[in-house]
């Protein structure tokens, strides 16, 4: 059975040629030393992913997790793997140096995280949520909270979670009821129940730091009355040592379609005297603070879409090369491996081209996050942050929707054997399904994209992205090479279609919000596909320059061929999607809800 192999060459190409790592990153070392650091990090991360995490993915899926006497127990091997993970410093890769982190670019961290997620989706969720909690506390925590929690979270000795969802609320955070009652010592006592809490309890670390949304007495109704609290599993003494058990417990585990080795917990706060928590920032501003964690998680979940697609592609490709069935369509005498059949090659190329577009786009956004935080020019920082804000729902929504489609294709290539659990193809299909749901469904991402990221600034950030796309298009057009003609034509049509859709949304949102919102997911898909075409055009140009410079490496020729495939199979969808956005939204509203 195929075991995941990190695609280091493709990852390095995306890092250097598409996202501009080293050239545009901010390392304390010289550029030469930075390249050595990057190579070492990627190779060691790849080795850990392949040798330690990947072998546990299948066994963890079969064994799952269990709750016994109030304690969640993880699958065999997970605890030891996590101990090695934290001891090797992987948890601290991009964390703040002042709390023990390495302070490396988020771009490099994104590449490493992709490998963790491909190798073992369930395992990777634990450090992912810890990173989000570190982000929120770094930005908004008190000095006491930072001193108490961040060094241990950055080292990986403690993990973190976010607790938002409640049974009656779902994605509607305005409806949460968890109470936070002030105590005479300046702390709070929390009472309530949270559901769907990923890695809410486990046996891999000595403490778990929960970030919990709750309401204080007299708080305003709706989202304006939400506050954020730090609630540790075990209380922490003044000297930093572990104290008594807090009144927070996992009371049950969800039985899920996939990610079986990741505990999804129902958490009870305050079944007795109340769970002790401390306020983060100011009362009633918790939603703003939680969004720092949520946006980090949304980008990370987008990477899960990419990662599961890569893993599913590798398994499908391996199977297609080994599985001998039927004669070739041109009439060979003997049966051939199914990779020789045209439709199987089409499916594999469909997977490959989209994965490369997804990776390039995700890494480009990660690079923009670095620029938004560190660039010396404030105007550049603002512009880069606008790009990150615009693309975060696309990374979350488009990458996960596409990841689901690719995982499904992987199962299809396996044929009937894909439906049999023993082959392992179905695990990717099952694991992928949650990615379009948690951290906000695709519909929620689309609402955010249209309402907050496009309409709010009257399309300014979106139109700046169009300018970047046209710059790439002009560069390709200027080559006046016949091999690029179809790519140029399709990218030009894609950009024009996207521009028409943006104009329509900005022009009609206020007057007909329901009609525009009805096509929100279609717009998200359009923006993802055209952005992917832009990335693939950049990949083709970078590869062409390498060939022109004398390289005979077939890697670059393959990149160009994959770019052609993307432009011919995906960019032609752009005009049709724009047509739906402009003319199809209203048709959703014609039918009465009683007709369903």
Automatic annotation (TrEMBL):
Its cofactor is FAD. The keyword Transmembrane does not apply. Residues 40-156 form the Acyl-CoA dehydrogenase/oxidase N-terminal domain. It is an enzyme of class 1 (oxidoreductase). Residues 162-266 form the Acyl-CoA oxidase/dehydrogenase middle domain. It catalyses: 3-(methylsulfanyl)propanoyl-CoA + oxidized [electron-transfer flavoprotein] + H(+) = 3-(methylsulfanyl)acryloyl-CoA + reduced [electron-transfer flavoprotein]. Residues 469-589 form the Acetyl-CoA dehydrogenase-like C-terminal domain. GO terms for molecular function: flavin adenine dinucleotide binding; oxidoreductase activity, acting on the CH-CH group of donors. Pfam families: Acyl-CoA_dh_1 (PF00441), Acyl-CoA_dh_C (PF12806), Acyl-CoA_dh_M (PF02770), Acyl-CoA_dh_N (PF02771). SUPFAM superfamilies: Acyl-CoA dehydrogenase C-terminal domain-like, Acyl-CoA dehydrogenase NM domain-like. Residues 284-449 form the Acyl-CoA dehydrogenase/oxidase C-terminal domain. Its EC number is 1.3.99.41. Transmembrane segments: none annotated. Keywords: FAD, Flavoprotein, Oxidoreductase. The keyword Flavoprotein applies. Involved in the assimilation of dimethylsulphoniopropionate (DMSP), an important compound in the fixation of carbon in marine phytoplankton, by mediating the conversion of 3-(methylthio)propanoyl-CoA (MMPA-CoA) to 3-(methylthio)acryloyl-CoA (MTA-CoA). Belongs to the acyl-CoA dehydrogenase family. This is 3-methylmercaptopropionyl-CoA dehydrogenase. It comes from Denitratisoma oestradiolicum.
């Amino acid at each position: 059975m195929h075991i995941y192999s990190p695609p280091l060459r493709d990852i390095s190409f995306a890092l250097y040629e598409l996202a501009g790592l080293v050239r545009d990153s901010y390392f304390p070392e010289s550029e030469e030393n930075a390249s050595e650091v990057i190579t070492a990090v990627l190779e060691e991360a790849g080795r850990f992913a392949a040798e330690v995490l990947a072998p546990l993915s299948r066994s963890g899926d079969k064994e799952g997790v269990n709750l016994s006497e109030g304690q969640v127990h993880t699958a065999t091997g997970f605890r030891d793997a996590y101990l090695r993970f934290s001891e090797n410093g992987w948890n601290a890769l991009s964390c703040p140096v002042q709390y023990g982190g390495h302070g490396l670019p988020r771009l490099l961290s994104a590449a490493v995280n992709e490998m963790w997620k491909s190798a073992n989706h369930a395992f990777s969720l634990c450090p992912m949520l810890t990173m989000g909690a570190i982000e929120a506390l770094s930005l908004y925590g008190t000095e006491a909270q930072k001193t108490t929690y961040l060094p241990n979270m950055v080292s990986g000795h403690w993990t973190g979670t976010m607790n938002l969802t409640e049974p009656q609320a779902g994605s509607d955070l305005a409806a949460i009821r968890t109470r936070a009652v002030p105590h005479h010592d300046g702390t709070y006592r929390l009472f309530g129940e949270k559901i769907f809490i990923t890695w809410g309890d486990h046996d891999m670390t000595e403490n778990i730091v929960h970030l919990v949304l709750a309401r204080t007495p007299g708080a305003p109704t709706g989202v304006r009355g939400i506050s954020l609290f730090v609630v540790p599993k075990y209380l922490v003494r003044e000297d930093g040592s572990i104290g008594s058990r807090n009144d927070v417990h996992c009371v049950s585990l969800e039985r899920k379609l996939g990610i079986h080795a990741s505990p999804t917990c129902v958490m009870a706060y305050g079944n007795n005297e109340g769970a002790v928590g401390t306020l983060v920032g100011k009362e009633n501003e918790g939603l703003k603070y939680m969004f720092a964690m949520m946006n980090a998680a949304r980008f990370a979940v987008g990477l899960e879409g990419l990662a599961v697609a890569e893993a599913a592609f590798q398994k499908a490709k391996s199977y297609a090369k080994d599985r001998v069935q039927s004669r070739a369509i041109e009439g060979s005498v003997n049966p051939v491996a199914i990779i020789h059949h045209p439709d199987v090659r089409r499916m594999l190329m469909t997977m490959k081209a989209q994965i490369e577009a997804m990776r390039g786009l995700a890494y480009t956004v990660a690079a923009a996050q670095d620029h938004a935080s560190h660039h010396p020019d404030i105007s550049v920082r603002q512009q880069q942050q606008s790009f990150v804000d615009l693309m975060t729902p696309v990374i979350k929504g488009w990458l996960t929707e596409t990841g689901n489609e690719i995982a499904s294709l992987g199962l299809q290539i396996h044929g009937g054997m894909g439906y049999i659990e023993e082959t392992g193809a179905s695990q990717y299909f099952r694991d992928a399904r949650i990615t379009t749901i948690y951290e906000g469904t695709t519909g929620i991402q689309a609402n955010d994209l249209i309402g907050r990221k496009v309409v709010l600034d009257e399309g300014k950030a979106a139109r700046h992205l169009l300018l970047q796309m046209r710059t790439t298009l002009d560069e390709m057009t200027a080559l006046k090479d016949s091999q690029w003609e179809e790519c140029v034509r399709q990218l030009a049509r894609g950009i024009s279609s996207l521009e028409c859709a943006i104009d329509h949304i900005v022009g009609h949102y206020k007057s007909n919000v329901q009609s525009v919102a009805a096509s929100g997911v279609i717009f998200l898909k359009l923006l993802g596909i055209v952005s992917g075409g832009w990335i693939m055009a950049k990949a083709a140009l970078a590869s062409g320059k390498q060939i022109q410079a004398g390289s005979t490496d077939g890697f670059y020729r393959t990149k160009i061929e994959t770019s052609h495939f993307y432009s011919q199979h995906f960019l032609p969808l752009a005009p049709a999607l724009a047509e739906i956005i402009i003319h199809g939204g209203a048709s959703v509203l014609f039918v009465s809800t009683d007709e369903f």
